[in-house]
Every structure is written in structure tokens, then in C-alpha cells.
Amino acid sequence: MGYSSKGKRPMEVASKSSHSHVILDPSVQSFLKSCRLPKKADDIEVQDDSVVGPDGDSTSTIKSVIAIDGGYTEVTVEADFPSSKLAFFQFGALIFTMQDLESMDEARFIDPEDMSRLRNIQRLKLSLPIKNISIEGEKTLTHSVRRALHDFFNQDVGDGSLSESLKWLIFAEYDASPAEVYMLASCPLCDSREVEIRRKSITPQMTCPCSKCGEPLFLIDVLRLHEAIDDELGAGGILGYVTTTVEQLLLVHLVRVILRTKPGLMNNVLFIKDGPLAFFGQTANVHKPMRQLVTFLLDKHNLFLVGLEKSGPFVEHADEIIHKLKPNEALILSNDYIYRYIIPGIADDNSPYGRTTYYGSKVIYKTSTGGMYVATIPTTRINPRPKTNDLPNLQVILANVQKLKCDMYDSGLVPIALANKLVSLANHPSSRILEKFAVDTVPGRPSMPK
Questions:
Q1: pLDDT in tens, 313-332
Q2: Which residue, of 104, 125, 303, 390, has the fewest CB within 10 Å?
């Protein structure tokens, strides 16, 4: 890395000839020769026994749809050194009847704010310090982020808080014999490893003592987000994890409310999440209690849930091979298929794709009208070679995905399009407006020019 310019002296520029040393190096040449690229469509074989399609009567079960989405934007509060940043999040869950959606799916323009038949469950807002900002009374950026998350999770979102639903999930309180201990990988206060969190020691404020140092932990520490925060470099690395985690805990909260009020609704509601059914990064361990909840629901009640992806390697691959599928057919992706054609690597049935993050299996679905969707369907166990019977309610879910198509976007879905309009924060003008709001509100900062 060259020297930057701080005044009269010039900035150090990179050498114009050093690339020759890289090109001529035998180890570099050997490395490049060993690399392999993903196969193109002509080289891909779609196995006939992996292809299924929903029947025409599969949509009648579903009466309502709940779509969940979230978004965030970063804003700079202080541009000069030391620069300071905040992040604003917004999450939402929308509920529709199928009758309402059927009248909208061909609409050219949709605006959730103007639709009287649209029921807005709630918008949830979260603000996080992510660089050189601390909350009054907190010692570090890490503790400030923990405090902000704790307060957000503890707020009432209707029929309780997300903290209560997180506790309900990780201790399996929906079961007759809930777990009494959850192991936290690390304490954010004393750095001890393998810390016991006991269910009965959790206070109404969703705190509990560390089993090693005795200091009060927040229940949200089980998400381990504190491990990905650097007090000097910032908390920018956790923003994506926060988004997908809150989306799925909002789903858990809604399931918890339904089971407590009218369990029979689980037979008639389709849950749609924007993105795959997985917990990534530091939050990955939560996929285990989530799969446990899925197993319980499918055994004792029912569950119609799908995660739909808009971008990424699986979507790019689906675009490549969609012509190989017939209309109204779906390809269930095996571990071997994923590592052969999508993710570079060697398939290992003892370590299948997503075993430490996903609680479902991936499917590429081509609708009868040629639309393409990459979906995750929840499963009760890790299976390197899933078949139709391993994906409960697959036919019903895919049939309803086709029924809810949105012609506004490529492979769009009406509920997801509406949910995104409800919670997304555009770079312009939302980001600029939020930046001005933050600068004008944070103490000690001069107002931005109007």
C-alpha cells in the first residue's frame, strides 16, 4: 500500500512494471492452471429423477400469505476524521388473503400505502452505531451495538417482544419439555468460552448472569454478533447478519402468536421470506433450534414456508439452465449437483452444502408461464440427496408461488414486491434524508446545509 498525500508532498503511486514478477512466477502459473470455473449450461445434466412439478389442485389449502422483508442503509454522521457512521434498518411483515392477491398479481403498478385491502402488521425500526459512535453510558462500540439490539428486541411488537420469541425458540418452549440450558460460544464481557445460559435465570428484562464472570448478559448475545464487531474498524460487517436474523425472528414471532391464539391457522397460511432459509456468519448456530422448530411444527401442526432468492450464484445458475426445465417443473438440488455446477468444490456427503447454516433444501422452479424461482423449502433433517418426499408441502408451496407471480419484475412475486416497497430504504432520497436527520439530531454536530 502506497503513502497517501496529506499536503504538499505527492501521493505514492503503484509501480508500472511489478506485474511482470507476478506473471513470471512459477507458483502463480501453477495455481492458475489448477483453477476450475463453474460449468456452462451446455455442460450441465439435469437428472430426470430430481424433477417434479406441482399439480393444479395444490393452491386450495392456502387462504392467507405472510411476506417478511427487511432493509437497511448506512449514513455518515461525521465525514472528517474520525469518521462516524450509523445504520438505519426497517423490517416489515405483510398479511394478505389469497383473494386480495389474485386481484393484484396482474397490476402494472402497486403501492402498499394506497391499498385499502392490504393489512400492514407493523413496521419495525432499528438504529445501530457502526463506527466511532457510542451510546451514552456504554464503554465501547461493541457494548453500544449490544445495547441498541437489546432495546430493539425488547420493544413490544404486538403480543410480546422479539426477545421473548428468541427465548421461545432457543429453549424450545413450544415443546412440553423445553431445554434448560443454551451454550453461548463466548461472553462479550469476560471473553470466556462455552458460557451456560440457563432458561430459569433469564429475567423479565431478558438478561441473565454469565456463568463464568457473573456479569449480566443480554439474551441477544446468543446471536454472537459481538464477535464480529471491531471497536476500531467498526460494526459494518454485521449489518447483513442483523437483517436476515431479524427477518427470521419476526417469522418465529408470528408463528408463536398463531400457536398461542389459533393454531389451526398454520394449515392455511403461507409464509414467504425474502432470501434463503439460513442463518449466516456469527448467527449460524441459530439454524439448529430453527430446524428443531420446523420439525415440531410439521409433526404437531403444519408449516408452509418458503425462502425466495433474488440474486447470487444459485439465481445466476438458474438463469443458465432454465431452458433445460419444462414448464411447471422443479429441480431439487442435491449436494453433488451444487458442488459440481454451482459452488466450486468437491461434494462430501458427510459435509453437505449448508449443513451449518441452512434449515432447508434448495429448489429451482420453472412456472408454467416460464418464470424462474430459486426457493428454499424447510426440512426436518440434513440430506445430501433430497427427494420430493423430503420436502414437506413442496407441491402446495410451489403451486402458490406460481399463483402469486408479479409481472412487474423478472421472477417477481406480489407479496415480496409489496413487502419490499414497505420497508426498503433507497439510496436516493432515503439515504440523504436519513443522513441529514442523523446529523441534525446527534448532539455536537453542526446542521447540514438545506
A1: 999 999 889 888 988 889 99
A2: 125
